[in-house]
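Aim 2 progress update. The chain analyzed this quarter is reproduced below.
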Amino acid sequence: MRRTVLVAALSIALPSATFAGPASDAVKFFYVPAVKFEADEQYRDRFTEPVTNLFNLNDQATKKNPDEVACIDFDPGLDAQDFDQKTVSKTLKLAEKLDGDNAEVTASFSLFSEGDGSKRDMVWSLKKIDGKWKISDIASKTSDWKLSALECMAGQTAE
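Predicted structure tokens:
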């Protein structure tokens, strides 16, 4: 029992230190100290294809119909629209798997301190390009979707 308490205390004190590394730092950026919207143009340089293609189509859809919801109507890194920042920050755990210039970082966290359906497991795929980790995809283990598989036809014209 005493060991369990110590392990639990350490995991709270060091939520992302256990399996974190440079690739994890690239993911952690989007969660703490404040959640950032991945599709925001100012973060585009942190991504690579195929995700950048979706973000570009989302931008086109927003410009074409500014009063309508574009292709990405939720925060991909959260798999949600609503969240409590303190809870996300407190519960965030990152686990990193490296394979040469590829990495997979699993971000596990809760959106809220209470309630069913609050826990999330997000898998971020990264590639090392010119010495920097860039995000190539985000997948939700919780809801079973991949960002690269989302379709965005709003910015395209029919042929």
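Residues 51-64 form the longest helix (14 residues). The helical segments are 2-13, 22-28, 51-64, 85-91. These observations will guide the mutagenesis experiments scheduled for the next reporting period.
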